[in-house]
Every structure is written in C-alpha cells, then in structure tokens.
Amino acid sequence: MDFLLSFLNSLPGAAGQGLAWGVMAIGVYITYRVLDVADLTVDGSLATGGAVCALLISMGVNPWIAMLAALLAGMLAGLATGMFHTLCGIPAILSGILTQLALYSINLRIMAIGDASAKTKSSLAISVDRHSLLVSSRNIRKLTLENPLLLLALLVAAVIAVLYWFFGTEQGSALRATGSNSNMARAQGINTDRSKVLGLVVSNGLVALAGALLAQYQGSSTIDMGRGAIVIGLAAVIIGEVLLSGVFRNFALKLLSCVIGAIIYYAVITLVLRLGLETTDLKLLTALVVAVFLTIPYWKGKYFSKAVKPARKEENTHA
Amino acid sequence: MLDVKNIYKTFNPGTVNEKTALRGVSLTLNDGDFVTVIGGNGAGKSTLLNAVAGVWPVDEGTISVGGVDVTRLPEHKRAKYIGRVFQDPMMGTAATMQIEENMALAARRGRARTLRPGITRDERDHYREMLKILDLGLEDRLTSKVGLLSGGQRQALTLLMATLQKPQLLLLDEHTAALDPKTAAKVLDATERIVQKDHLTTLMITHNMKDAIVHGNRLIMMYEGNIALDISGEEKKKLTVEDLLAKFGQATGSDEADDKLLLG
Ligand SMILES: Nc1ncnc2c1ncn2[C@@H]1O[C@H](COP(=O)(O)OP(=O)(O)O)[C@@H](O)[C@H]1O
Ligand SMILES: [Mg+2]
User: Fold this and answer.
1) Ligand 1 — pocket residues by CB below 6 A?
2) Residue B117 per-residue DSSP state
3) N or C: which end of chain B has fewer CB within 10 A?
4) What pTM was computed for the model?
C-alpha cells in the first residue's frame, strides 16, 4: 500500500518529464518514421537546446525568447547534419554522429559564455527562485497556473497543431513523399535532398526545444542531459505505436501517441526506480526495451508473415 | 522534342565491374512520336531512359528536351518536362501515402512546393474523374493507401500520375513486364489511350516484340549499348516479328537474335 501510494505520488513528475520528452519524441518521429532516417544528432541538439536556454535565462533574458533561441540553435544543428548528408554525401547515421560529437564541444563552450572564470562548463544551474522559468518540477504539485503540466500540455498541443498543418502543405507532403519513396519523389520533381535537410532542421529544432523545457523543468542544463536521448525518443515512438497504432490513424493522433509513449515510458521508469533499480541502470533498461520492441515486428514478419499487415511505414499518411 | 546526341555511360569505371552500357547513342524524337524500344537483356534500354531522366549524369554527349539542354540538370529538375513509369510497380508511387495524395504530388510536378495545402477539394473531384477512366474501381478509394493496391493498379496509377501534368516526354520502362497478361493488356490499353488523347511524345521499352510492332509510329532496337535498328513510317506499319529478327541479324551480323530478343 505504501509502495502504491508513493508510486502514485510520483506520477505527476513522470507526466511532466513525459510531456517534455514527448516534444523530443515527436522530433524523432519526424526523422525516424516520416523521413526514414535514423538521426543521431539529437543526443547533442537536446543538450544544445538546454544549454542555450539555460544560458539566456541565467542572463535574465525572457524565457520565451530563450526557448525560441534554443529552437533556432537546434535547427542549426539539424542543418549541419543535413549538409553533411546531402552536400558531402556522408551516410545519414554518420552525419548525425559527427554533428553530435561537434556539439559536445560547442555545448561546453555555450554554457561558459559570459563567465570570466571558465572557458568551458559542463553544467549550468537555473533556479526557479532566482530566475523566471516557464516550467519547473518544483511546482508539479501546485494546483495553480504555475503547475508545469498545464503549460507543457499546451505546448505539446501547439507543436502537434503546427506540424499537422505543415505536413498537410505542399512542402510537407513533399517531405513525406521523400521518406516514403525517394525515387517517386524525384520523378515527381521533388528535391529530395532539400526535403531531407528540412526534415532534419525541423526535427532537431523540436529536440532542442525539448532540451530547453527539460533544463527549466529540472533546474539546470548539463552536458550529458542528451546522452542516449535517441533511444529514449525511439522508445517513446515505439511504445506509442505498439499501444495505439490500431486506434490512432490520423497524423495528429500519431504525433500524440509519441507523447503518450513518452509519458508511459517515464511512468514505467518511475515504477522500476521505486522497485529498487538505480538511475544508472536505466540506460540498460531502455536499450533492452527498445531492442525488444524493435524485434517483435521483425520476428512477427519473419515467422508469422501472414498474421501481420505491412505496417512498418503505415503511419506516413496525413489526415 | 527529345534530342539525344552521342551519349556514353560507363558504370563502375576502373573496377572489375566496369560496364559500358551506352556507346555513343544519338536519338531524335519529333513532337508526338511514339517510339517503342526493344532489345535483349543488358542492351542498354533502361540505361538510355535513365540517362534521359537524369538518374545520374552521362559521361559524354548532350540531352535536350523540348529545346532545353537538360544534360546538367538533376533528376528532380528534369521532372518538370518528363513523366515516367518504371518496370517495378513499387517504384512509381509512395506506398504509405493515399491515392489522392500521390496524385496531388504528381499534379505539382515541376512547380515550386509552397506552404499552400497539399491537396484541395476541387482537386479531389478532378482525380476521381481521372481515376474513372482507368476503370479499376480506384475512384471509390481515393483515401486508400497505395500500398494496398495490386501491382497492376499501382502501374495504372503511376501512368495516370505521369501524365496528370502533360509531360513533354513520357518514358515507360517495361511498365507492364511485372504484371499478369490480362492486367498488362489493360495497362497497355490505357497507355495507348492516354498517349493518343494528349498527343504525348513517348519512349516505351517493351520486352514483347508484338507490342513493339503494334504500338507507336517508330521502333528502335538496341544492341550492346547502341541503336541497331530504327524503323518508322510505312515500313513500321508492315513490320512482322520475322522481319524484325531478320533485320536484326543483318544489322548486327549476329545470329543470336532469336535467343537474345525472345528471351530478353
Ligand atoms: N546502376 C547501374 N550500375 C551498374 N551497372 C548497371 C547499372 N545500370 C545498368 N547497368 C548495366 O548496364 C548494362 C545495361 O543495362 P540496362 O540498361 O538495364 O539493360 P536493359 O536493356 O536490359 O534495360 C547491363 O550490363 C547492366 O548490368
Ligand atoms: Mg531494363
């Protein structure tokens, strides 16, 4: 009974984390599912978003502007990966790894900007007591407008609405076609290189925005806050798909299912932590969960091929 | 309408897999020409079409479409002038997108993609009408994913998409080869109707000599990366399969014509 109570007690926190990571998962969905590219930039761009946001807020900049700056920084990171891939012909995975690596150095520098005593910094604290933060885990139990869940939910809804609109436009459709069949896309006059770059830009912008939210939520940005982010993002996407792909067919709902996947992921994490696992064990657990969920559809297709529909990229449809 | 001058293409140059697929091909198509292309396996037919479409750059020579030199244009820019249907039914459509979405993408071929809606209500009605012409029941399935269609349905849809925006040049690469005979006949029938109706300049590869003779006003035969035979006008109208085999033997000095052509 105590155990159950303490678990329930920690659920709002899980929901907050899940909502912020949900924005990140939507970014991963855009590359992994819509564009059909595994983009590893995100581990770096999440931290970049956190670093830029924390830096600006600590300098007294309005938090909305700080988040906008984080979004733009993430888009720039996506642009770099896109250029490595399309302009330099480097495979997508490697392009992402290169940017991610470069961002490690850049993020250390960003967090030290304006600090005369250090050239690099591996973390930057922003306290809700001293700075104006939009979302803070400290307020997670308050029944006021300060509760971060409210703003996080609104932001998630706004992100989904904008993306739903965008992927219904001519340019968004071209992007989906590029991911679905790049041969067909080129034959229909679509510049597939540009589509890929655009997808990476949008995706990493969202990931950095999630980093900005997380930095405020937990009260600091750290250099390794994005470590393994791609796997958490994938976990959220896949959990959402496995549980909801049967009912959620509309594109907006598919994006929502990534967010729900992220919330469930954090609820489960909270549970296993209560059961006695260490936080440092979580990466192992996450990796195993993702491996299992990626294996299931493959084995199903291989050994029970009649039972499954060609579901792999079904979710690419808008509307 | 199409002017191909002396093009060469070698794949994997300098490796053990080096393969010269085009050896100085020149070909001029007049407005409204419907040219059928035959030739054995590996003769360079697909390579010729891919060169025109700009899948990769040619090593030498020039290509112009409708008077525009496209030799240096990338594939997606040439798409403005060229409609294509591939041999593989999977290649011409986006499987995870709806029928109407595929058509809307094709309707915007050669135009800048903006932030306007990817498909409008008026378009839908128009597409429904167009699909009725195919007579495959697709007009009631506008929002079905293309991945759910049969190979024949997908090829017919690709054909419709290639011609939705009237192309200056239509390239068909054995687009009925992967289909069962009945479906193949239906798709070929639709091809003939659309080409006639829109007076399209067309280059159609086929593995079937009879089809090559029946359709079009001109027939070319490829052999070892070049055009070995070019038959048009009255001569083409009177052509028989036997004629073709004999002519091929004369032109290439080879008696392997039967095997190569019939099997290829
Ligand atoms: N992309 C490619 N890479 C390497 N070799 C190729 C490629 N495309 C075609 N070839 C080779 O070029 C030759 C001509 O091929 P192709 O034009 O496809 O013949 P076909 O007349 O049967 O369509 C073949 O030997 C083929 O193996
Ligand atoms: Mg071929």
Assistant:
1) B 11-12, 19, 21, 39, 41-47
2) B
3) C
4) 0.92
